[in-house]
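thought: fold this chain, then report.
action: predict
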Amino acid sequence: MFTSIKVLLPITILLLLFLPSKQTLAQYDARYAFKYPKDFFNPVGTEVDFNPSVHKKIGILIQNYASLPLTEIASMIFNTSPFVRYKQFFYFRIEEEFREDILNNNVLSTRAYDYNGRPIARGLPISEGQGAFNLVFLKFGLKEVIRCSCTGVSILTNRGNFAYAGEDSILHEMGHAFAGLADEYSDPGASNFAAVNLEDRRTPEPKWSGLIKQGFLPDRRIERGEIIGGIDSGRFLIPSSNCYMNNHTSPKDDRYCPVCQLAIISRISQLSGATPPWE
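observation:
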């Protein structure tokens, strides 16, 4: 979670399905050894086609206390890589409408919106009702705590991660909740768990070395410091000094780094059935 947020707009992200808690280095080798096109990690890449006979849609169930237009929320998410390339794989539902239709008609709501926040004609099949994760936009100044839930806050949800963010950190928090990414900024309060985008400083070669050799990441070891009492007690390396999972204000982080992009693509592939580029 960001330690400095210019404009607070809390957001809670509830994830139904988690990445496996135990993942081996061998699983990541293919991601980092694959030879990607030079522009693969650029902000605008080749869009991946959604094939309804093969792929499943990823639902985002939204509850909006901040009264932001859905089009603005969608723009925050789908104007950045890699989400922009997989935007056809996502749809939105509005939780208030979902509950209203159940109350009035005793059926699951079919109302839904595309990745631009525009209504989908005739909605979606009832079977696609629950979505993959939940976004709750809270009004400015409301306080939440990160916690786990046994019941959740959305239809057919039974567990998840909660986080809150400002407008300038929505993508940071989505990285946490959607792809299981860790903080890359230096702070004693930064997330401190094994994650795809962290590496032990003692390792002779970070797992993302294949991306370094291809020129997608800096050819140097970037340490995530944790200064306590004037002593750096940090134990992690990070892939890049420019990523939404960092916490910089100058220079402003303006992308997901290649390691985080591949983690998000992996998650999208896991949920939708799309074939990741490295397979």
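thought: worth noting. Helices lie at 25-33, 70-78, 95-105, 170-179, 209-213, 258-272.
final: tokens above.
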